[in-house]
Each structure stands twice: as structure tokens, then as C-alpha cells.
Amino acid sequence: QVQLVESRGGSVQAGGSLRLSCAASGYTASSRCMGWFRQAPGKEREGVAVISSWGTTVYADSVKGRFTISRDNAKNTLFLQMNSLQPEDTAMYYCAADAYRECRGTEPTDFGYWGQGTQVTVSS
Question: Are the CB atoms for 100 and 11 separated by under 8 Å?
């Protein structure tokens, strides 16, 4: 029984920063691939970044160099540091976890557990 709970999102001006966190319970986070996804109204859910149990990361081209995914396995917590935010980053952000230490991929279908999502809004 895995539960994932995202922290409160927020609203920021373009160029600003925001940090999201995801608290996991019901399993040991160190044993799971984890990731962040986002979905804007009228668009498909897309992968933002994923991280393996040992810290290997993959980023979407749209956020590379601006976002950083990290994890604190001792606290079963996943983080997403978002810098240089742009209006195009506005979306509902979701925390996700898989059943394996290795990440199977960066598509939503590669992840079996999901948080409820948190809203991030970037204004110009």
C-alpha cells in the first residue's frame, strides 16, 4: 500500500523558483524508481524528470538545466527544484513511483503509483 503526497504548489512570477516535495509511505523509497510528471489543461500528461534508486536522472528537454530532481531515501521523500520558471511550466504536477529500483522509462505507463497532484502556476 503505497501512498504519495505532494507538497503544496504555488504561484510565482516568471523567472522565479519553487520547490516541490513528495512524501512516500507504505514502502521504502530507496527501492523504487521515482519521478515527476505534469499535465496542463487540454494536454497529455508528460514526464518531467525521473530518478533511479541509485540517483541516475533523466530530464525532459523542456526543463533540462532548470529543474533538478533529487531524493532523500532516509526520509522517503522526493524533491523537484524548479528554477527559471516560465508560463509554459504552468501545470498540475504529480509525483510517481514504480515497483522497481531501475526506471523502466519516462512515460506515465511506466509508473504504477501516483500522488494526487499539486498546482504550479507561473505568471508573466
Answer: no
